[in-house]
Amino acid sequence: MIVVTAAGGLTGSAVVRALWSRGERVRALVGSSQPRPELTALSADVAAVDLTDPAAVEPLLAGADALYVIWPNFDPEETAGVVALLGAARRAGVPRVVYHSVLRPQIRAMPHHAAKDQVEEALDASGLAWRVLQPCAYADNLDGQLEDVPDGPVPVEYAARCSRLMFDHYRAHGFTGSPRVLEALLGRPARTFAEHLRDQELPPATSELP
């Protein structure tokens, strides 16, 4: 059995779906007790739990062959939360852990990247067998924004601040990486962002002013 955290999100549900397609048993940890038909349809054992409570998570790790750690995006408590979760995994005897990090976690200009860098450092001292994945931004995440770009002031809360700093950094420096690891995992050439956009059905452009 493989335990997947934050399994109700886009990334988590995709991981559960991929594991199910390979015949793996999955325990999907989610943040609330609302129905999760997209997960139960994949025969996942869905459990609602507060990831910041390692004592509550630890029993759900018993007997697991692996733990796939995804942490909710833009959470200021990610470093402390994941480190505590790793401790629970060690006590539960989980033999291996995969941590879903991010490309270039060492960039201190983006606080949510730096948090993942600190987790990667903590993995060395965790006593666990581990692997880290460092994905780039997903092209799919932009699909819903192509037709409707939000306007107005941006709140100064942590998530909004991280998002603003992230896109400021992207504009100034770009955000690209080598596709070699991705292609090794996929077993095929990676698609470019331009290729992805060509597949999207967008409304025809107009020159009319509002």
Would you mind describing this structure in some detail?
A 6-stranded parallel beta sheet has the order 3-2-1-4-5-6, with helices on both faces. 37% of the residues lie in helices and 12% in strands. The protein has 210 residues and is of the alpha/beta class. It has a single domain (2-198), classed as NAD(P)-binding Rossmann-like Domain (Rossmann fold, 3-Layer(aba) Sandwich), CATH 3.40.50. The chain is globular, with a radius of gyration of 19 Å.
Topology readout:
Blueprint lengths: L1 E3 L5 H12 L4 E5 L6 H4 L4 E4 L5 H4 L8 E4 L8 H15 L3 E5 L10 H14 L4 E5 L24 H16 L6 H7 L6 H6 L12
Parallel strand pairs: 1-2, 1-4, 2-3, 4-5, 5-6
Helix pairs in contact: 4-5
Give descriptors for this structure.
210 residues, Rossmann fold, 8 helices, 6 strands, 37% helix, globular
The mean pLDDT is 84
**What's the tally of helices?**
8
**Top-tier CATH class:** Alpha Beta
In angstroms, what separates the terminal alpha carbons? 55 Å
Structural class: alpha/beta
Which CATH architecture would you pick? Answer: 3-Layer(aba) Sandwich
* Fraction in helix: 25-40%
Order of helices and strands: EHEHEHEHEHEHHH
Strands of the widest sheet, in order across it, are 3-2-1-4-5-6
By CATH, the superfamily comes out as: NAD(P)-binding Rossmann-like Domain
CATH level 3 topology: Rossmann fold
Query: What is the C-alpha radius of gyration, as a whole number of Å?
Result: 19 Å
Contiguous uncertain segments of 5+ residues: 149-155
Number of domains: 1
User: Which geometry do the CA atoms define?
Assistant: globular
Biggest beta sheet attributes: 6 strands, parallel
Strand coverage percent: 5-15%
Give a count of the beta strands, DSSP E runs of length 2 or more.
6
